[in-house]
Specification:
CATH architecture: Orthogonal Bundle
Radius of gyration: 19 Å
CATH topology: Tetracycline Repressor, domain 2
CATH class: Mainly Alpha
Strand content: under 5%
Shape: globular
Order of helices and strands: HHHHHHHHHHHHHH
Low-confidence stretches: none
């Protein structure tokens, strides 16, 4: 179970769902060979990235998440490093069997970004948040390139990027204690809570306008509009209100967890809206 937990199964499930959804949108589910290679490589690369993150966040997790596999002592650093390397290699090899472009993405973009995030970018104001958002958005780009239909992925890339960056900044609000103890310079530490909440409010406003555009531009149908308004935008606005009126670690944790699950509603909206 420890070997699975360190991969963060919910995050991997989100990535798997994103791949399946993207393949559905561009009618690629029938190509089982490509789909299988995509799923395997995405699971391996993202799983390896999560292991790297846990290795470099060990001291922070001793404060914020002491029950994780490494701070709890259930897995050693040496075991985690071997696991990480094996997953990266497996993911890159699988991508090479799809096409040259997917091999290039995993080898020269995804892997360096994931390692760089844990080693350097995560502790930089906003840069770390942007990298995480880019990585999730890149999943859709990866599928588009694999099937030779990148333009169809543009709306999904934009929505995934916007939603993820909001959640990541909320997560930084939750993790202030551990980040501060390790000298990380996240937005809440550099700007303070109030300024960070103002920025989140600004991003939320832009996102709510942007996520309505696919319906306005007739990319997706009315089912998409309904699910986005009820299942994404209203919860986002509600979360924003709660954070403003009752800020604190407990509230920030509840909101970031809600956002982690709420992205599945956004994916469902795209699924139904593209039918």
């Amino acid at each position: 179970m420890t070997w699975l937990l360190i991969l963060r199964p919910l995050n991997l499930f989100q990535a798997v769902l994103a791949v399946w959804l993207a393949a559905f949108v561009i009618n690629g589910l029938a190509d089982l060979r490509t789909l299988t290679l995509l799923l395997f490589s995405v699971i391996c690369i993202n799983g390896a990235g999560n292991v790297v993150n846990d290795i470099y966040d060990l001291e922070i997790d001793r404060v914020n998440r002491p029950n994780r596999p490494l701070p709890s002592g259930k897995m050693s650093i040496a075991q985690a490093r071997i696991y990480m390397i094996s997953l990266f290699v497996a993911g890159i090899v699988a991508s090479a069997f799809i096409n040259l472009q997917t091999f290039f993405i995993t080898t020269f973009i995804a892997t360096p970004l994931l390692v760089g995030y844990s080693v350097w970018f995560k502790r930089m104001p906003l840069i770390g948040n942007l990298v995480v958002a880019i990585m999730l958005a890149m999943t859709f780009a990866y599928v588009g390139v694999a099937y030779g239909n990148f333009p169809a992925m543009v709306p999904l890339i934009g929505l995934a990027f916007g939603f993820t960056i909001i959640r990541e900044i909320v997560k930084d609000l939750e993790d202030q204690a551990g980040d501060l103890s390790q000298g990380a310079r996240t937005l809440p530490i550099v700007w303070g809570e109030s300024a960070t909440l103002v920025f989140i409010s600004f991003l939320t406003g832009i996102f709510i306008i942007a996520d309505l555009l696919p319906y306005g531009l007739h990319v997706y149908n009315s089912a998409y509009l309904l699910f986005v308004i009820v299942g994404v935008n209203i919860p986002l606005l509600s979360a924003l209100i709660f954070m403003w009126f009752k800020p604190g670690k407990t509230m920030f944790r509840r909101v970031q967890l809600m956002l982690k699950y709420d992205i599945f509603v956004g994916l469902l909206a795209i699924l139904l809206g593209s039918r």
